[in-house]
């Protein structure tokens, strides 16, 4: 009999928890014992309503948790969106049956922001990868995975939703393999050029001298709408770029970052190093505008060059 | 023809014109006065014409007129012109469309409408054009004038033509004008204004064309051109002039007859702030002697007139950008505060005879600080758009024609 402890920090895990709960394999959910966010509170509320047992994950010590897991006869552990590095004692407790789900085709995009960086790099598909937890983050052997397509218009929220929808299928696949003792663990390649580090503030500001149209488009959707929102500067003020589209422009002799068109129908068009870009949706302190209205309201005129 | 045209327009109700919300917002007071005065069409048109005649009478007069009097007259002309623009029924899309073309910035009619208030630009041009026309008409019975990139109000000519008509100084048989602009919104507004001013007899045609490609059928006696911004940047003045100068008659004139673009190294605070602290308005007559003495002049970067235009050689760079070679300047060595100075580029416009537009008389001759040019110092962040040189270096200036026009320095 497999009994799971599910380690998580937010509602995006609900679909997977539900699956385990309904298939009678869920023993408890382990939540971080820290300042509760609205998301975490919502999850807690739902767990309570569903009569699911929750355990607190102590940030400094595993002793209590281990004995509680033991008393619940937990023998499987699944981690998703936990954002805390688990300690060796816990890993040992599960003796190889503690797994993590990472939303990227590992070894690519190891790190805390895999979906963000995949969108920003314009990947057209991703994978939910289920791998063994080892002391090295995101590096354990892989049991199974599930491919998810990324639509060219998907924002980070769209992909997060798709991932949440796909979770039960992946967990089911794993459980079935486990049941039949049919898991083959595959080693990951050690290295990958593609990583998913923390996003620095500076990386969120559009660099007109370096970024291509496509890169800015992807940067905008990767951050829509999330803490990692793309930003551009105009007159000492920062504005959010929530959506942009590539447009063709034969224009030469104009610096990247220059406004080359303001038009009610064609919008607000900016020269880039490899063509041009229409700024579709812009977030300001005063509300959200399309590029044309933003330009008219904020006095952004053709010929003006935005700085970096 | 004239009477019929009046009849037709008087049938229209001007009481509540269909005006785009944006235009309505920016010309609210003018529209309100239109509504409260409850004018008939004839009365409005009469006021409009009078305002154009009055402003021109003042600037053509040889007796000194006070600045405030001029400003008032030009404001009145503006108020009337925007009423006419409102009646032209431009859609918001046409009103606000602005873009960078292959040869420079194309401003929106909404942004262009203010130039008719630019007193000393219009004064310098109107006086010059008036003298040029007089002197041409001494020898021939009729002349063709081309005014490309004229904008929604063609402010360098329509006031003058209104004055000619009112004073009967010259008739439409003597002066035939081609107005040209690439912006369909400008064309719509212009058509309305010409109609309201009842200047049809002077207008040969109104063409919606890119002036850098336009081939007039007539040969031209006077080419009137103003398509530049401060520092001789952004708009396509040079490309337009260079193309259209070939359609001038042998003895044809371009107005302005010469534009001299000059460079100087200035202390920004002195040049742009201190100098203007005590004066009523900025004008070349009001510059401050100390501030002028503090400038380090680099000399003329380029001069644009019929003969330089006809001899200009275009160079095409690898990326397809077209440039024209301008002057070489050797940066002076004996200036101890050079590292604190910024480059400012300014134009002096000689329209005709003794008439012109001097530095600070208008937005178009206002010195333009160039914050990408560094002498004896380094920029805070290294951007590839920055130019860094030292005192004593020789700098070759080029003028870029493609995209957004302006000067590009290169170290020799
Ligand atoms: C500042 S406005 C009017 C300029 C006018 N001469 C004045 O003194 O106010 C500029 C106008 O020039 C027009 N323009 C600029 N470049 C042009 C070009 N290459 N061909 C035709 N029109 C052009 C624009 O469409 C716009 O209406």
Task: Give a brief description.
With 308 residues, chain A is α/β, with parallel strands linked by helices. Chain A contains eight helices and 13 strands. Chain A has helices at residues 14-22, 38-49, 63-71, 88-93, 114-120, 156-179, 213-222, 291-298, and strands at residues 4-8, 26-32, 54-57, 76-80, 98-102, 125-132, 142-149, 230-234, 237-247, 259-263, 267-272, 275-284, 287-290.
Q: Would you write up a description of this structure?
A:
The complex is a heterodimer of chains A (308) and B (412). Chain A is an alpha/beta fold and 308 residues long. Chain A has two domains: 4-179, 3-Layer(aba) Sandwich (Rossmann fold); 201-298, Roll (Methionyl-tRNA Fmet Formyltransferase, Chain A, domain 2), CATH 3.10.25. Helices cover 28% and strands 27% of the residues of chain A. Chain A contains eight helices and 13 strands. Chain A has helices at residues 14-22, 38-49, 63-71, 88-93, 114-120, 156-179, 213-222, 291-298; strands at residues 4-8, 26-32, 54-57, 76-80, 98-102, 125-132, 142-149, 230-234, 237-247, 259-263, 267-272, 275-284, 287-290. A seven-stranded mixed sheet of chain A has the order 3-2-1-4-5-6-7, sandwiched between helices. In chain A, strand 1 (4-8), helix 1 and strand 2 form a beta-alpha-beta unit. Chain B is of the alpha/beta class. Chain B folds into two domains: 2-255, 3-Layer(aba) Sandwich (Rossmann fold); 258-411. Chain B is 35% helix and 25% strand. In chain B, the strands form five sheets. In chain B, strands 5-4-3-6-7 form a five-stranded parallel sheet. In chain B, strands 8, 9, 12, 13 and 14 form a five-stranded antiparallel sheet that branches. Chain B is globular and about 65 Å long. In chain B, 46% of the residues are buried. The interface between A and B is medium-sized, with 23 and 27 residues. Bound molecules: S-adenosylmethionine (SAM). Residues 103-104, 106-107, 112, 115, 148-151, 155-156, 181-183, 186, 210-212, 226-227, 235-236, 240 of chain B line the site of S-adenosylmethionine.
């Amino acid at each position: 009999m497999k009994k799971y402890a599910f380690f998580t920090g937010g509602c995006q895990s609900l679909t997977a928890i539900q699956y385990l709960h309904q298939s009678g394999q869920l023993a408890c959910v382990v939540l971080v014992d820290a300042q509760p966010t609205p998301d975490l509170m919502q999850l807690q509320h739902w767990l309570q309503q569903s009569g699911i047992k929750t355990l607190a994950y102590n940030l400094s010590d595993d002793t209590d948790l281990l004995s509680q897991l033991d008393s619940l006869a937990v023998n499987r552990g699944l981690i998703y969106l936990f954002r805390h590095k688990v300690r060796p004692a816990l890993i040992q407790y599960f003796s190889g049956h503690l797994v993590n789900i990472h939303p990227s085709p590992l070894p690519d995009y190891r790190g805390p922001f895999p979906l963000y960086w995949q969108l920003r790099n314009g990947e057209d598909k991703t994978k939910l990868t289920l791998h063994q937890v080892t002391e090295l983050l995101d590096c354990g052997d892989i049991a199974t995975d599930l491919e998810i397509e990324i639509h060219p218009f998907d924002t980070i929220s769209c992909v997060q939703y798709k991932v949440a929808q796909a979770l039960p299928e992946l967990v089911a696949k794993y459980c079935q393999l486990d049941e039949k003792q049919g898991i083959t663990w595959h080693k990951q390649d050690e290295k990958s050029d593609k990583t998913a580090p923390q996003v620095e503030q500076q990386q969120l500001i559009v660099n007109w001298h370096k970024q291509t149209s496509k890169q800015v488009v992807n940067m905008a959707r990767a951050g829509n709408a999330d803490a990692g929102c793309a930003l551009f500067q105009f007159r000492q003020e920062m504005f959010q770029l929530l959506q942009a589209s590539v447009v063709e422009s034969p224009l030469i002799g104009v610096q990247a970052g220059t406004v080359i068109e303001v038009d009610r129908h064609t919008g607000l068009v900016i020269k880039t190093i490899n063509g041009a870009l229409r700024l579709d949706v812009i977030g300001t302190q005063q509300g959200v505008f399309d590029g044309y209205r933003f330009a008219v309201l904020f006095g952004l005129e053709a010929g003006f060059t935005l700085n970096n | 023809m004239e009477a019929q045209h009046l009849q037709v327009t008087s049938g229209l109700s001007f009481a509540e014109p269909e005006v785009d919300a944006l235009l309505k917002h920016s010309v609210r007071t003018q529209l309100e006065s239109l509504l409260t005065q409850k004018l008939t069409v004839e009365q409005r048109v009469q006021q409009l014409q009078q305002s154009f005649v009055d402003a021109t009478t003042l600037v053509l007069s040889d007796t000194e007129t006070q600045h405030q009097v001029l400003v008032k007259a030009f404001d009145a002309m503006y108020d009337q012109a925007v009423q006419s623009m409102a009646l032209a029924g431009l859609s918001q899309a046409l009103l606000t469309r602005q873009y960078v073309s292959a040869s420079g910035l194309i401003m929106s009619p909404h942004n262009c409408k203010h130039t008719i208030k630019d007193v000393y630009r219009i004064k310098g041009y109107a006086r010059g054009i008036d003298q040029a026309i007089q002197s041409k008409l001494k020898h021939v019975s009729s002349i063709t004038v081309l005014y490309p990139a004229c904008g929604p109000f063609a402010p360098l000519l329509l006031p003058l033509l209104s004055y000619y008509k009112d004073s009967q100084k010259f008739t439409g048989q003597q002066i035939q004008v081609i107005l040209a602009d690439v912006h369909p919104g400008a064309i719509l507004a212009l058509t309305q204004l010409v109609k309201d001013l009842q200047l049809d007899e002077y207008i040969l045609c109104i063409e919606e064309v890119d002036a850098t490609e336009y081939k007039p059928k007539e040969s031209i006696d006077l080419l009137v051109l103003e398509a530049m911004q401060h520092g001789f940047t952004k708009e396509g003045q040079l490309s337009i002039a260079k193309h259209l100068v070939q359609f001038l008659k042998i003895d044809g004139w371009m107005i302005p007859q010469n534009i001299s673009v000059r460079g100087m190294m200035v202390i920004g605070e002195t040049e742009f702030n201190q100098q203007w602290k005590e004066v009523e308005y900025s004008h070349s007559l009001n510059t401050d002697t100390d501030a002028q003495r503090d400038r380090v002049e680099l000399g003329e970067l380029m001069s644009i007139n019929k003969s330089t235009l006809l001899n200009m050689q275009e160079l095409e760079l690898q990326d397809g950008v077209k440039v024209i070679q301008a002057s070489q300047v050797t940066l002076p060595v004996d200036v101890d505060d050079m590292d604190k100075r910024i480059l400012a580029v300014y134009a002096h416009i000689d329209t005709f005879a003794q008439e012109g537009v001097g530095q600070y008389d208008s937005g178009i001759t206002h010195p333009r600080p160039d914050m990408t040019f560094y002498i004896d110092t380094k920029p805070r962040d290294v951007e590839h758009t920055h130019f860094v040189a030292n005192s004593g270096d020789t700098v070759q200036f080029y003028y870029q024609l493609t995209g957004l026009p302006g000067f590009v320095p290169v170290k020799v």
